[in-house]
Design a protein that fits this description.
Layout lengths: L8 H10 L7 H13 L2 H17 L1 E2 L6 E2 L13 E8 L2 H10 L4 E5 L17 H10 L4 E4 L5 H13 L6 E4 L15 H9 L2 E2 L7
Parallel strand pairs: 3-4, 3-5, 5-6
Antiparallel strand pairs: 1-2, 6-7
Helix pairs in contact: 1-2, 4-7
Length: 208
């Protein structure tokens, strides 16, 4: 493969770093770097400092594991949220997607992934134990399983359902308005909002 010839090693290094980002090829990386070079030095410093500060100072909420500036995120600490309902999601991106629907007013629990033996991800690698502990210690009446509708998501749903079987809590799942095999972050807000509002008992989805 013939690599691009750069007139500057500094330029090449910057392009290589941008190209490490998901979905960013070398041509796009070069375009972004050249754009930054057109900006005032102060603007570029602000850009760089924002990334550095993000990496150094960002927290994960000790309750739901969402990204937060503080020890407890603004959703968990909001007294107007319904503390009796917890929506279980795979990633922080899913929290953002559901919040954008404005159809949900409960709390969240971010697992940090889904069970995927092929990728070496088991239940102990996810925030499942902390979810069970959270339900046992608080007055939670409903758990909404809002994971992606693929094999890994279904496996994780079933595992959580089995873990909660002996706890008095209603377990529901989002309606299948979300296409099978689809991921929440790519589902339009209207469809996702309806899927949450029209959620069904998880046990009704089991075929045995």
């Amino acid at each position: 493969m013939i690599h691009d010839k750069f007139p500057s090693k500094l330029l090449e290094n910057a392009v290589e770093e941008f190209a490490k980002l998901p979905g960013i090829g070398r041509k796009t990386a070069l375009r972004l770097v050249l754009y930054l070079l057109k900006l005032d030095e102060l603007e570029v410093e602000d850009f760089g400092n924002a990334i550095i500060q993000l990496r150094k100072e960002i927290n994960h909420c000790k309750v739901c594991h969402n990204i937060s500036d503080t020890e407890v995120c603004n959703i968990c600490s909001n007294p107007s949220r319904n503390e009796e309902v917890i929506c279980v999601v795979e990633t922080i991106r899913d929290v953002l997607s559901i919040e954008n629907t404005r159809q949900y007013n409960g709390l969240y629990h971010v697992l940090g992934g889904v069970i995927s033996p092929m990728d070496g991800v088991g239940p102990s690698d996810l925030e499942i134990a902390s979810l069970v502990e959270r339900i046992e210690k608080n007055d939670v009446t409903e758990i909404i399983l809002a994971l992606s509708t693929n094999m890994e998501g279904d496996t994780t749903n079933f595992y959580i359902y089995k873990k909660l079987k002996n706890i008095e809590v209603k377990v529901t799942t989002i309606a299948r308005g979300v296409s099978v095999g689809g991921e929440l972050e790519y589902t339009d807000e209207l469809t996702l909002g309806r899927s949450i509002k029209n959620r069904i008992n998880y046990s009704d989805t089991l075929t045995f």
